[in-house]
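User: Fold this; tokens only.

Assistant: Input:
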Amino acid sequence: MHFEYSYAGSTTVQNRGDSTALSFAPDVKRPPTFFSGELRQNVAFREAISALHDVVVSDLRFKPKDKTAYKLWAAQQEQVDLAAIAAQRQSVATRLKALREELAELEKEISRRMGPFYEARARYYRYLYEKNRDFWFVLDPVITVHPDECFFECFSQDESSYGRLGASYEVFQNVGEFSCGTTNIDYSSPLYDEFQKIRSYKRTRFEVDPSGFTTQTGTDTAYKEVKIDLPDSWVRGFLQVNSAMALPAVRFTLHPMDVHNFLFILKRHKEKKGPRSMRYKLAPGQPVKVVFEPWGTEVVCRRSVYEGEGTHDIRVWGRRRLGVLERLIPVAKNFTVHLLGTGLPSFYVADLGDLSFTLGLSGWTANDWSTAGNFDLLAPRGQVDEFTRRRVFDALKETWSAKPEALASKLGLERGAVLGALSAWTQAGRAIWDLNKGVYRARELSREPLPMDKLRFSNEREERATRFLDARAVDVKTRPGAEGSVELSGTVKDGAKVLRPSLRLDADQRMVFGECTCNFFQQNKLFRGPCEHLLALRLQHSRVSRT
């Protein structure tokens, strides 16, 4: 998938003795989006933007060690060992010594000739990763300007971590003119070093430069054209994270020192065997307890009491990605944790006062958002016509952010229809769910509509589910549950087999429980999303409800 950007120059940072000026170069091919103002909370912004940088460059995928030198040594040692054995025979000792000397000279010559190549190759990779990480970046961060805040979004290289930095206008003073919208900004690794120079005693000017929109000529040499070929899984993952954020989750608050204790444990220990998980033990009215496996170390968060309902024992993996939050601990008031379930994504929202930082983590570091779970399939699936979807998006675009209840009241629609439309726009990359403020926001990820034929979330399982419905092979029974939930059960004829799926939908029509007798479910449960039989049962229920 190809993305093209045009920046009016490059993002610049000017540091002086008494002031710092941050000027981000936006994509001039997109509708004008700009903002300017002076920071009032310099230190908090510095730490938050630095944490966002850590997400951008994050790549915790396994990197094999360079064993070139070892293999060369092993080959030489093998010759030495063989020579030592052969030298025991006096008849060949003299001849062997001469051959060893000749072989040593040949190996020295090989090392002399190939040495510069190996050294240059190692320097090249070190330079790309350490000095010019722009080459390793996948997509420049996205910035969105809304009437109440500006926020940055980014996705890690390994497709397992999502970062969002929101800054309300109380963070700024002397705010100038601004234009709401979404744009990509030119972002480079040297900016990180410049961010570290922001100080509380220095006046810091922050702006998304509007000048490029007024001087665009198309032939100006100052314009930087950027073309990026992104893998479909990366873009799909960026969209999937928004579906995951809107799912029901177990929610509680942690004191910053509790997060510090988590990182302290992880830094002092190194896993040599599995399981490598954090187990959250939650009981109403009791302090949050976290067990670090495989060591069995338990941390009791006495400053953080779980105030939710029911007891929970939830395990999450990929815990070393929490290191992104380390810089936020001194400036954070608290961290709100959202856990979707064992092996499912988790979200950590840092309250920095007028700033907020959201870190989203997939179930495992090795799994990206698009393969770890089809969260779009768990999201509300109400069938909404194109006219209704357009009405909902236009109403959202008028205010840029709104709660589903407000949109439903404004448009005279049912809340379920509004949620279905918002879910569709979320999956299309044109809206997001704000975990911090609990609202939907208009945010168009790309200038052109995304190719949904490549990114469509209706995967092969959902396609097969549709075929079951067309063949009239689905029978569904509905039973009301507690607190507005609905329990579905029935049969699905899959060839000669008869499967018996069952599931539960909450009041917002989101799947919160499911079981099936098929092989796919027995192997994966819901960790890779629902099977085609659960989907067929759900789609049939939707059809019956509409008739």
